[in-house]
Amino acid sequence: MTASPQFVLASASPRRRQLLALGGWPFEVVPADVDETPRPGEAPGGYVLRLAEEKARAAAGLRPEADAVIAADTTVVEGGEILGKPADAAEAEAMLRRLRGRDHQVLTAIAILRLSDGRLEADLAATTVPMRAYSDAEMAVYIASGDPFDKAGAYAIQHPGFDPAPDIYGCYANVVGLPLCHLTRRLKRLGFAPLADVPAACQHELEYECPVYVQILEGAP
C-alpha cells in the first residue's frame, strides 16, 4: 500500500466530497453515471448496495491508476417504499407531505473497490429520522428554493432554513450522504488508515454530538 493512497470518489455530491475530505485522504472526484431505477421487488437495502457497487465499478474504469474507488448511494424509505429524488415540485410536495410528522429511515450504502486486486468492501448504514410537523408555508418556501430536487426524499437534513428533523438518533453523516465511521472501518480492512480523527472531525463539521460512533467503529450496523 502507498503511504498516501489516491482515492476516487464516484460522486458529484458536494456533501460527500465535504465529508470524505474530513478523513484526510487525497482523492479525486469522478462522478459515475448509472441507471438508478429500482428493479421490480428490489428491497431498499439491496437497491442502494447494488447502486453503490455499480458506481464504484463504473468509476474504476475511468481511473484504473487509483488505489481505490469509493462510491455511495442514499435513499429514503417510508413504509417499506423507496423515495428517490423528486422529478418536479409536485412530487417534492407529495414526498414532504408523506414524511411530515412521521419517522422514516435513511439508508446509505458504501462500496470501496481496491484496484490492485479487485477486492470490494461494502457496508450499509441506517438512521431513523423523525420529521417535524413543518407547515405548508414552510414546505412551499423550501420547494421554491430548488433544494429538494437532487435529494432523496426531497429534503436535506442539514438545510438551515428548513431544518426538517432537528433531533435524530444515529449516524448524522449517513443522512447527509456518507457514513464516515462505516467508511473508515471498511477502509481499514483494505489497509487504508485515516489521516485524521474521523469521528472528531465529523462531529465538529456537522455540529452534532454523535452517540453511536464508538459502536459503529467496533462493528455495529
How would you describe what is shown here?
Helix content is 33%, strand content 19%. The chain is an alpha/beta fold and 221 residues long. It has one domain (7-217): Maf protein (Alpha-Beta Complex). Strand 5 and strand 6 form a beta hairpin. Helix 3 packs antiparallel against helix 4. The radius of gyration is 17 Å and the shape is globular. The chain starts with 6 loop residues before the first strand and ends with a helix.
Topology of this structure?
Elements lengths: L6 E3 L4 H7 L6 E3 L14 H17 L7 E11 L2 E3 L5 H11 L3 E12 L5 E11 L5 H9 L27 H5 L3 H10 L8 H9 L6 H5 L4
Parallel strand pairs: 1-2, 1-3
Antiparallel strand pairs: 3-4, 3-5, 5-6
Helix pairs in contact: 3-4
